[in-house]
Design goal:
This protein is 70% helix and 0% strand. With 364 residues, it is mainly α. α6 crosses α13 (288-306).
Length: 364
Amino acid sequence: MGAYILRRILLMIPTLFGIMALAFIVVQFAPGGPVEQIIASLNNQGGNDRLGSGGGDVQGSNFDAAGDVSSKYRGAQGLDPEFIKKLEKQFGFDKPPLERFGMMLWNYIRLDFGDSYFRDIPVLKLILEKMPVSISLGIWITILSYLISIPLGIRKAVKDGSTFDVWTSGVVIVGYAIPSFLFGILLMVLFAGGSYWDWFPLRGIVSDNWSELSWPNKIIDYFWHMTLPLTALVLSAFATSTLLTKNSFLEEIRKQYVVTARAKGLSERKVLYGHVFRNAMLIVIAGFPGAFISAFFTGALLIENIFSLDGLGLLGFKSVLTRDYPVVFANLYITSLLGMAIGLLSDLTYTWVDPRIDFERRDV
């Protein structure tokens, strides 16, 4: 197993390199970089001395070159080329792309992600501040979806072909087919003051006066804000694990050892939970890390933006819009590395649940 783990870790290096290289190449051809963002902001101001009206992230940024904007701006004639060069140097765009890519990789290996272009804060600190929101979403989605899907999947397997199985399969298929963000929008319209009821808050993970609340009220306020986002995600997340649980139990129930156990006079409950459960739940339990990382990424990308939850997804979305490349690349680097680590952990979970599985006898 040690050799397999080492091979997987070594395989992460070229995989991560390829992800970062592809993203870097795409960025080189993407219009509207940070320099262009500032130039457009200045042109829209019509010669004003400040950078702030172009966007909240631009105002208060830590640019040395922005200190003498008023002296460099020439109204309709555009910006002084020397000023533009100072901006490019400030962002590091005065260097060739290969040199910039090499410097970025060297810094990322040392976990040095630099500072945000438009915020006076280190990128790593910014990501760590937003990560708890995304992690809490991923944890709750995974737990809730498993609490629903495992009992439901077992029941569907036992009642295979019955009316209960048919109707619940329809619900599962609908949950699987409709994306979580559509559920989120529907829930907002229905229950967040859209066109019907105003029962839940529209944005944020806690209320503005959360720090002033007592601990019981803090917990209530937290779950009050999380109800709609979690509902939207769980409705989509439980579908796959439910079908997986059902199919795993059906496969085990039809095996010879189950027939033998029943022939010995064991009760159906004893057969189901004493013999079938451990073998059938192998693939479900082993998929727990993968389910978490999937829920983590899905929640970060979609639901955080819909419900304005201040996590990694909302941070990444805003960073792409403002072309805050240090935040974009650092977010991609960390999430990619985390995803590959969770993938390895998922494989190791298989061997922990069932020691008969040996990945060293298989190709990576």
